[in-house]
Design a protein that fits this description.
Elements: H1 2-16, H2 36-47, E1 53-55, E2 61-63, H3 70-89, H4 95-101, H5 115-123, H6 134-149, E3 153-154, H7 166-172, E4 174-175, H8 177-190, E5 195-200, E6 210-218, E7 221-225, E8 239-241, E9 251-252, E10 259-261, H9 270-273, E11 289-291, E12 299-305, E13 315-322, E14 325-333, E15 337-344, E16 347-352, E17 363-368, E18 374-376, E19 380-389, H10 395-403, H11 409-416, E20 429-435, E21 439-446, E22 453-460, E23 463-467, E24 478-481, E25 484-487
Parallel strand pairs: 3-4
Antiparallel strand pairs: 1-2, 5-6, 5-10, 6-7, 8-9, 10-11, 12-15, 13-14, 13-16, 16-17, 17-18, 19-22, 20-21, 20-23, 23-24, 24-25
Helix pairs in contact: 2-3, 5-8, 10-11
């Protein structure tokens, strides 16, 4: 139990200690003094190491500083450079991309180990030869990924997947998207190829979250894929069900935010400035990540003036509704206003404070529409309406229920074409809740012979939840948007 608690605590320790990073000049080892390139690599690794933790072989949490030796760092630098030299010399990858996504001696929180040499022995090579363009790099990467797929099985049995060494991953040859992304990260970086791990803390319109890889082609561009599953150029991480070329009928899992893990500390972030864990809600975002939402979606800023937020707290959070909870996906600090930058559109969000004066708490939902306009959702008791429902959940939820039992293309296609798999059941009672700082019962009705549900005298302007009994993690909210039901 103690080890499980330590593993759970590790991300929060990781966040809380990053402020100890200094920018003082490193003590360059004599072995590489005079080689400006290797000196710069050593400085990058050394000055960003403070604040990192890993698990030892016996499960203890250890600081990297003081436990990762100069010898390990130097060996790693030389092996990494050896693998990437051709790509660097041809300027297929940049120095900054190499430093961030190839050079680091660690990929996750696993015990420190010589994963590069281990993979070289398995691959029987130290780099990818005959690459002269991004196109040939992609082709080579896809060839490698095809080999990773052999014998690998998706399952959810592994625990603490971000603490697995490459040895453990290859022993198990199974895991979720977390293990898949780590697997590819180890292999591709060992061969000198800059591969990142991207993730969303929570989907904004369906349960769960996701982790995947990205081939980094420049400081501002990348191509997604997923190790041991889907290749570069053919991977679409957000499709739930693709309806041919019809984007209107296709369904998607939409993230509010997408982050990319980095080795270096992002000193300009709120997470670096407010490094003490007591300032933060438990969240998977920290100061060693960059926001790449705009590399995947059209985005907009949500700007909240100070006079909208009671008490003007130091930190304000924005969350997505996921599995019956509000999952925080971003924190911002107070300035002339609160600015949640680069937010994905067409999603429901929830703004809140944490550990602030209870008299000055801020909690309210909003909908960011396709045009980037923020629609604030408050229950309007002076203006009430009737709400008619001919389905009990969204088309996405219908398709997810079908896909739990296998890849039923025909049934998902029928749903995409308008079939309702979740109609109200005649004679059954349903309850409609509205949001007023909590879910409040607005009305309950039996389904009549027509099959429709009609709820009366419901406050307008807020979000709603249809339930059979009490709210659970299964239901998704909806709003009235342009006088129509919109499941969010």
């Amino acid at each position: 139990m103690l080890r499980n608690y330590i593993l759970w605590l590790l991300p929060f320790i990781f966040v809380s200690c990053t402020n100890s990073v200094t920018s003082t000049k490193s003590n360059i080892p004599k072995e590489i003094q005079g080689d400006r390139r290797l000196e710069s690599y050593y400085t990058f690794i050394d000055t960003n190491m403070s604040g990192l933790f890993h698990l030892s072989e016996n499960g203890e949490v250890k600081k990297d500083s003081g436990n990762v030796s100069e010898e390990i760092i130097l060996k790693n630098i030389k092996l990494a450079y050896q693998s990437s030299k051709d790509l660097l010399d041809q300027k297929i990858i940049s120095e900054s991309v190499f430093k961030e996504f190839v050079l680091p001696y660690r990929l996750n929180d696993s015990p420190i180990h010589d994963w590069r040499s281990y993979i070289w022995n398995i691959q029987k090579r130290r780099k990818i030869n005959e690459i002269n363009s991004i196109r040939t790099l992609i082709d080579s990467c896809n060839s490698i990924n095809n080999t990773l797929k052999i014998g690998f099985k998706f399952d959810l049995k592994n625990t603490y997947e971000d603490t697995l060494t490459i040895n453990k991953i290859l022993d198990n040859k199974s895991g979720s998207c977390v293990t898949m992304a780590n697997y590819a990260g180890y292999v591709f970086r060992a061969l000198g190829i800059p591969v990142a791990i991207d993730f969303t803390p929570a989907w904004g319109n369906t349960p769960g979250g996701h982790v995947w890889n990205a081939l980094i082609t420049s400081d501002r561009s990348s191509i997604p894929f997923l190790g041991a599953e889907a290749n570069i150029g053919g991977y679409e991480p957000f499709y739930l069900f693709k309806m041919g070329d019809n984007s209107i009928k296709s369904t998607y899992k939409l993230p509010g935010k997408i982050y990319r893990r980095t080795y270096s500390v992002q000193k300009g972030t709120t997470y670096y400035k407010f490094d003490n864990q007591r300032n933060f809600l438990p969240m998977t975002v920290n100061s060693r990540m960059i926001d790449v939402t705009d590399q995947y979606f059209k985005v907009s800023d949500i700007i909240l003036p100070l006079n909208r937020i009671k008490g003007n707290p130091n930190l304000l959070y924005i969350s997505n509704y996921n599995s019956g909870k509000f999952v925080p996906v971003m924190a911002v600090e107070r300035s002339k206003s609160y600015i949640f930058s680069k937010m994905n559109r067409n999603l429901l969000y929830y703004v809140s404070t944490y550990q602030e004066n209870k008299d000055n708490t801020n909690e309210f939902p909003l909908f960011l529409d396709d045009s980037g306009h923020s629609i604030f959702l408050y229950a309007n008791f002076a203006r009430r309406t009737s709400i008619t429902l001919d389905r009990t959940q969204s088309p996405e939820a219908d398709q997810m229920d079908v896909l739990k039992h296998g890849w039923e293309v025909e049934e998902c296609t029928r749903i995409a074409n308008g079939k309702i798999n979740s109609p109200p059941i005649p004679g059954k009672e349903y309850k409609l809740y509205y949001w007023d700082r909590k879910w409040v019962l607005g009305d309950k009705k039996l389904v009549g012979p027509s099959g429709s549900l009609i709820f009366d005298n419901i406050p307008t302007g807020t979000m709603y939840l249809l339930c059979e009994k009490e709210p659970t993690e299964k239901e998704r909210p909806f709003i009235l948007y342009k006088d129509k039901i919109k499941w969010v």
